[in-house]
Amino acid sequence: MRPAPTVTDNVQSFRWCSTGSARAVSPKTVCGVVYQGANRKTGCQFSFTCDGSQTRRPEHDGWEQARHAARRAMDGYVYAPVGRATHYHTDWLVPYWRSSLVKVATVESHIFYQRR
């Protein structure tokens, strides 16, 4: 899960979701960062939080890979090519904020940035 550092670097406190709706969790948690903007049609941090894909049953192998990557990120693992990136997007997007940041890496179809 290459975006993991962008999530953990944007979390002030490395706590997982509280019980109940993750959307109600403060942005000081992993879930708060992931679900930030999920209630807006154009404001999702991660598309799965607002595109309806959460209503489908997760694919077992993919879910296990995601859980493993999340555990590693929470334990402090940093994927070296992206370092401490705080923002990322796919190469088919042109977000308004990209010119205000420093590009640090491109990994497959994802472009990573950090603050100046």
Structural summary, described in words:
This protein has 116 residues and is an alpha+beta fold. 22% of the residues lie in helices and 15% in strands. The protein is built from three helices and three strands, in the order αααβββ. The protein has helices at 4-8, 30-34, 60-74; strands at residues 87-90, 101-107, 110-115. A three-stranded antiparallel sheet has the order 1-3-2, with no helix packed on it. It starts with a helix and ends with a strand.
| % residues in beta strands | 5-15%
Mean pLDDT: 78
Low-confidence stretches: 12-16, 18-25
Instruction: Strand order, main sheet: write it out.
Output: 1-3-2
Q: Total number of β-strand segments?
A: 3
SSE sequence, one letter per element: HHHEEE
Largest sheet: 3 strands, antiparallel
In which range does the helix fraction lie? 10-25%
The general outline is globular
Q: Helix/strand-derived class? A: alpha+beta
Q: Give the termini distance in whole angstroms.
A: 24 Å
Instruction: State the helix count.
Output: 3
- Give the C-alpha Rg: 14 Å
